[in-house]
Design goal:
The structure holds two protein chains of two kinds.
Chain A: E1 5-8, H1 9-19, E2 24-27, H2 35-43, E3 50-53, H3 57-69, E4 74-78, H4 80-85, H5 87-95, E5 100-106, H6 122-127, E6 137-139, H7 144-161, E7 164-170, H8 171-175, E8 177-180, H9 217-235, E9 239-242, E10 249-252, H10 255-270, E11 275-280, E12 282-284, H11 288-296, E13 300-305, H12 311-319, E14 324-329, H13 338-346
Parallel strand pairs in A: 2-3, 2-4, 4-5, 5-7, 6-7, 10-11, 10-13, 13-14
Antiparallel strand pairs in A: 1-8, 6-12, 9-11
Helix pairs in contact in A: 1-2, 1-7, 3-5, 10-13, 11-12
Chain B: E1 2-10, H1 15-28, E2 32-37, E3 47-55, E4 69-72, H2 75-81, E5 90-94, E6 108-112, H3 114-120, H4 127-138, H5 148-155, H6 164-175
Parallel strand pairs in B: 1-4, 4-5, 5-6
Antiparallel strand pairs in B: 1-3, 2-3
Helix pairs in contact in B: 1-5, 3-4, 4-6, 5-6
The chains are: A alpha/beta, B alpha/beta.
């Protein structure tokens, strides 16, 4: 199907998950991502799948863990405070190397906060929001087409590396409707020779979270996890640039914030100010080398976020030695204004 | 070209739907479109609105801070969005429910008796469709009035498709109005 349809971001994620072969979805409702469970409740029974509204977020993520252990492509979704409640399961799955796709349509925080789109969960997503040494592969789409395309990609990467893959969007992206060409249906799922499928006629597979004996059993396991993470860092970085060829200044932003920056860049370019956009798409693995290379060619970097400044730390760590890194952001579900971004960049000239 | 629009009114007047129908009609004519509804903590009787961008190039930001065009169907929406409009913008307001005239003199203003015209053409609830018809008459670049038949077919659920015919009639009534900026 290559016809363009107008689709809401949240629903695009739901349909893309089904096209990627996801037939199990467990969740507990929360604004601003309720169109995902609503869509899955309607669509999954039509394709022979299972939709279940759990009694809590913890129950939902535990059901995801079970389905994943059984070898299924499985997804859950929530928004910020709900994702906090799911951290136990995310840490368990990361320890047990169980693939899953988890969607976080971020809202204003901390706490229950508000229901407007925000980007305050960057630290939680990229540093590992639960206990222990682990990473989640984090993808931050920038429009509805990418929400769909990267949902399919998230399932692929989750299975390829046996890792939890998070789609990190925000309320505005989830609520937004844009033209969309649906991704192609995945017709063949990768085999999972580790899954719990009944041990008749073979050695049992073990999916474990607790690793007590011998003393260094857990240490060795974490080294293995990090060998895997290294491969992901080497092979799976995704980023996008716009107007960077001749840029004197670089704006770094992801998700909805990057859309606002694109508008500011158009206005600045119209006034002859050479500014470009660097947009990380994978937030973990962060495009470390790529942003460092870009930083060598510009005079100053402005990081724009819908938060008090979280990704700016990664920008500082990787690009800070090549040029100054400035920050502009708004917390609490408010959007950075185009005019403020324009004024800030002009102040560098 | 890029046009940024706000559709606003009481919850239930169909402003979110009107924005969506415009998006689908413009998309059919190969324009880039985006639509963000206000959502969540809206009150019954309060205002609902949606931000729509129509462009013939990639849409940078779907967020509308200062609209080029506003379609307001009730007074609280006029009060909220008139001050935010761009200079030279176009304001379409519903005189059926708004007694006060807009104050700005640096924008083009069109007062339309949406509810009455909708009622006369078969559906008193379709004031939003009158405004939609008038909108594309005033700004023909957005889309052709003929594309609304396709848009209604795409946007309306099977359960409510029986209203498409009357809605299309009401859109055309809005389109055929004699329209003069005040």
């Amino acid at each position: 199907m290559s016809e363009k349809i107008l689709m809401k971001g949240n629903e695009a994620i739901g349909e893309a998950a089904i096209l990627a072969g996801c037939r199990h979805y467990f969740a507990y409702p929360i604004t601003p991502q309720n169109e995902i469970p609503a869509y899955m409740a309607k669509r999954l029974p039509e394709v022979g799948g299972t939709f279940l509204q759990a009694e809590s977020e913890l129950a939902a993520v535990s059901m995801v863990m079970g389905a994943s252990a059984g070898g299924a492509r499985v997804m859950t979704s929530s928004s910020s405070p709900g994702i906090s409640l799911k951290q136990e399961g995310i840490s368990y799955m990361s320890g047990a190397q169980l693939p899953a796709v988890i969607v976080n349509m971020m809202r204003g925080g901390p706490g229950l906060g508000n229901i407007a789109g925000a980007q305050g969960d960057y630290f939680q997503a990229t540093r590992g929001g639960g206990n222990g040494d682990y990473h989640v592969l984090v993808i931050a789409p920038g429009n509805v087409q990418e929400l769909a395309d990267y949902t399919v990609k998230a399932f692929e990467l989750a299975d390829k590396y046996r890792i939890v893959c998070m789609i990190l969007g925000d309320g505005y992206l989830g609520q937004m409707s844009e033209p969309l060409v649906l991704p192609k249906a995945v017709d063949k799922l990768p085999p999972k020779d580790w899954a719990l499928t009944g041990a008749k006629g073979r050695e049992p597979h073990i999916i474990a979270s607790l690793r007590l004996n011998p003393d260094n059993y857990l240490e060795k396991h974490v080294y293995d996890l990090y060998e895997n993470y290294k491969k992901i860092e080497e092979n799976e970085v995704i980023y996008d640039t716009q107007n960077m060829e001749d840029a004197d200044y670089m704006i770094v932003a992801y998700g909805t914030a990057s859309r606002i920056c694109k508008k500011a860049i158009r206005l600045l370019r119209a006034e002859g100010i050479k500014v470009g956009l660097f947009r990380p798409v994978t937030l973990w693995p962060f495009p470390k080398k790529e942003i460092a290379e870009a930083a060598k060619k510009v005079k100053k970097i402005l990081t724009v976020e819908m938060s008090m400044g979280q990704m700016v730390q990664d920008v500082q760590i990787n690009a800070g030695k090549y040029c100054d890194v400035d920050f502009l952001g708004r917390p609490g579900g408010m959007l950075p204004e185009v005019e403020k971004i324009v004024q800030r960049v002009k102040s560098y000239v | 070209m890029t046009k940024e629009l706000i559709f606003a009114g009481f919850g239930g007047q169909g402003v979110i739907l009107a924005g969506k129908i415009l998006c689908i009609a413009a998309m059919k004519e190969d324009k880039c479109v985006s639509h963000i509804p206000s959502y969540g903590a809206e009150m019954r009787g309060g205002t609902a609105n949606c931000s729509v961008v129509v462009a013939d190039e990639e849409i940078a930001s779907p967020v509308v801070e200062h609209p080029d065009i506003c379609i307001v169907l009730n007074k609280p929406s006029l009060d909220k969005f008139e001050p935010r409009m761009k200079e030279g913008g176009i304001l379409i307001y519903n005189t059926s429910l708004i007694e006060n005239k807009p104050k700005r003199t640096d924008i083009k203003v069109y007062g339309i008796d949406c509810n009455r015209i909708a009622a006369e053409n078969g559906s008193e609830r379709a004031g939003n469709m009158v405004a939609l018809g008038a909108l594309v008459k005033i700004v023909p670049w957005l889309c052709s009035v003929d594309s609304f038949a396709y848009a209604l077919d795409q946007a309306i659920s099977a359960r409510n498709k029986k209203f498409n015919e009357v809605n299309l009639k009401v859109i055309k009534a809005g389109y055929d109005l004699p329209l003069n900026a005040q």
